[in-house]
Amino acid sequence: MKTRKLILPALLCSALSVYALEPSRYWISETPSAATDAFSVYEAGRDESSPRIQVALLLDTSNSMDGLIEQAKSRLWHIINTLTTLKYRGKEPVIEISLYEYGNTGLGEPSDYIRQVLPLTRDLDLLSSKLFSLTTYGGEEYCGQVISNAVSQLKWSDTKADMKLIYIAGNEPFDQGRYSYQEAISEARRDNIYINTIYCGSRDAGISELWYEGARLGKGKYFNIDSDKKVRFIATPYDDRIAECNKRLNETYISYGAEGESKKINQEVQDINASKISASNYAERALTKSKSKHYNNSSWDLVDRAKDDPDYLAHVDNDELPAELKGKSESEIRRYIDKMEKERTAIQNEMSELGKKRQTYIDEQMKNATDEDDLGNAITSSIIELANVKGYRQ
C-alpha cells in the first residue's frame, strides 16, 4: 500500500492539470441496439437476471445552457442514489445511464449537432467524468433527431419489467430540425421507452414550444425549470464523517490491467469534482460508492474482479498486477485481496449507517423548506412515480 500512497497523489495532480429550479410537475400518463459499452474492459458481475433501470440523459449544450449543465453535475449522485433505493419483486436492479449532448454548433452539421457522449453504462466514474467534460457553444437544437438517435443507437433491454427512460432538457422549440419529434417518440414508445421533457423557461413557453406535447406523447412527465437557479444543498452533521470514510474506502481499491492506474486516478478526480460543488454533493457521491451492487469496478479493481470472477487470480498475468503485488504467489495475492475486501465491507457498512442518519436529518430539514424542488428532486420524483407504476418499490 505504501507504494500506491506515494505514487497516486503525484499522478492525481498530473491528471488534474490535464484533465435550480422551480419545476412544475405535470404527470401526463396514469399508466405507464446497436451501440456497445466500448469503455468497459471487463463485464463480470453482470447478472442479466436482475431487473434493469436504463436512463438516457439528453442535454442541450448550446450557449444558453451553462446553468443546466451545472445543475446536472450538481445532482448526478442524488439521482443515482435515488435509483439505488428501488427494488423489483425484492431484487435490486442494475442501473445503466447514457449521456447525449445536442444543440452544440461545434459538433458539426453532418451530425445534426448531436453527440453520443456515453452509451448505456454502469461505470459511474466514467459517467461523471464525461458529464464534467461538457461545454456549451452555439445553438441548433433538434429534439426529434436526438431522441431518435438515443432510441436506435443504445442497447435497450427487451425485458418488459425493465424500466427505460429518456430525459431531454433544453429551451428551444421541440419541433426544430428535419426529423419529426412525433415519429421519434413513436419509435421510443414501440420499445416501451418513456419520454420525459424538461423545459428551461416558463411553464407556458414550454407548452407553446411543444415540450408538454412531447411528454404527453411519450407517456412521461413534463417539467419547466429555471436552469440558472443554484441548486440548494442541505449540509448535515454527518457529511464530514462520510468524507473521511470515503478517503479510507479509496485505499481499498487495487488497480490492475492496462487502464487500472488511470481508472484509479479518475475515481479520485471525480471525488474532487463532486467536492468542488459542495460538501453535500461529495457526501452523495461517497454514499453511491458505499453500494457495492451499483458501484462495481471489476474492469480495473482486483477486489471487485476477484469477487465477480474467483478464478481470475489463478491465471492473471504478473504484468497486469500493481507494483505491490508483482512477483507474489496466488495465495499471497488472495490474502491481500481478502484483507482489502473485509476493510471495504466494514467501511461501506459504516457509510450506509451514516447515510441513513443523514437522510433522516435532511428529511427533517425539508419539512420546513419553502423552496420548490430543484432539477434532481424533480427527476427523482418522476422516476419514483413511474417506478411505482412499473411495480418497483423503495
Instruction: Count the domains.
Output: 2
Provide the helix percentage.
40-55%
Number of helical runs?
14
CATH superfamily descriptor of the largest domain:
von Willebrand factor, type A domain
Give Rg in angstroms.
Answer: 21 Å
Look at the structure and give the CATH class of the largest domain. Answer: Alpha Beta
Tell me the β content.
5-15%
Short description:
The protein is α/β, with parallel strands linked by helices and 394 residues long. It has 2 domains: 229 residues, Rossmann fold (3-Layer(aba) Sandwich); 129 residues, no CATH class.
Account of the protein in words:
By secondary structure, this protein is an alpha/beta fold. The protein has two domains: about 25-230 and about 370-394, Rossmann fold (3-Layer(aba) Sandwich); about 240-365, no CATH class. Helices cover about 45% and strands about 15% of the residues. It has helices at about 1-20, 65-85, 125-130, 145-155, 180-190, 205-210, 210-215, 240-250, 260-275, 280-290, 300-310, 310-315, 330-365, 375-390; strands at about 25, 50-60, 85-90, 95-100, 115-120, 165-170, 195-200, 220-225, 390-394. Strands 1-8-7-6-2-4-5 form a seven-stranded mixed beta sheet, sandwiched between helices. The protein has a two-stranded antiparallel ribbon with strand order 3-9. Helix 1 (about 1-20) crosses helix 9 (about 260-275), helix 2 (about 65-85) runs parallel beside helix 14 (about 375-390) and helix 9 runs antiparallel to helix 10 (about 280-290). The longest helix has about 40 residues, at about 330-365. The protein starts with a helix and ends with a strand.
